[in-house]
Amino acid sequence: MNNLRLEVENEIAVLTISRPKALNALNSETLNELNEVLSDIEKRDDIKVVILTGDGEKAFVAGADIAEMVNFTAAEARAFGMRASEPFFKLMNMRQVTIAAVNGFALGGGCEISMACDIRIASDNARFGQPETGLGIIPGFGGTQRLARLVGMGRAKEMIFTCDAIKADEAYRIGLVNKVVPQAELMDTAKAMAAKIASKGSYANAIAKAAINNGYDMDIKNAVEMEANLFGITCSTNDKKEGMTAFLEKRAADLTDF
Fold it and tell me: What's this model's pTM, rounded to 2 decimal places?
């Protein structure tokens, strides 16, 4: 990989987007590499949680690569957006839990890729924004859709229409991020959360993730019925037997299904 680094330890993968000279901007090569490495991670039983972050102190991901986009035709721009959707949907739907550890700028495609993750932890110097309309375009990597789902339609429209970047504390206030920590504590905090998640039932977390994602846009009656079906599936696993037995025996559970 030319633009990514992958480190795996204790069932946690740290995937770093590394184009520091371009502030980790997403170009076609990086998107293709992300799609490839996430496909590989999804197959690995030794990885329970993925932390996505950016290289350097200035930016998580500063956006899509404008130098590549400047001469796009309409067809090329559409293809670029669809290329991004593949790894973004993998982050959203893969059985592993995904955490974005956001340091510095998360603008445009950077904000969008963070929103594709299950959880977002921001350093206190993080900045989030969708500046695309100032360039005469709209967000093309899911920003008009995921942002509204996370923070509500009114706030999403304000951020997109004004192009204003917001600070980490405001992102936390409106529900765009789960937690804000000092910059020096970002990766330790992300790894601690990842370790806690990895210690739980990984198969159960994967099923819960699917239930949340698939039920979000369903009517409540069908969504609850889907949940009941999935609850039944988890109750047929070894982890269920071990987890409940351990609870009754007042000991730590050894949950191994995935």
Answer: 0.96
Enclosing H/E stretch for 26: none
DSSP conformation class of 54: E
Catalytic site includes residue 158: no
CB neighbours of 245 closer than 8 A, spacing ≥ 6? 253
* Residues 6+ positions from 71 with CB-CB distance below 8 Å: none
Q: How many CB atoms lie within 10 A of CB 16?
A: 17
Could you say which of 33, 42, 76, 132 is catalytic? 132
The active-site residue out of 112, 225, 227, 242 is: 112
Q: What is the pLDDT of residue 26?
A: 97
Catalytic: 112?
A: yes
How does pLDDT run across 150-176, given as a tens digit for each residue?
A: 999 999 999 999 999 999 999 999 999
Alpha helices in the chain (DSSP H): 28-42, 66-69, 74-93, 109-116, 143-151, 153-162, 168-173, 186-198, 202-215, 220-234, 238-248
Owner of token pair 């409940």? 244
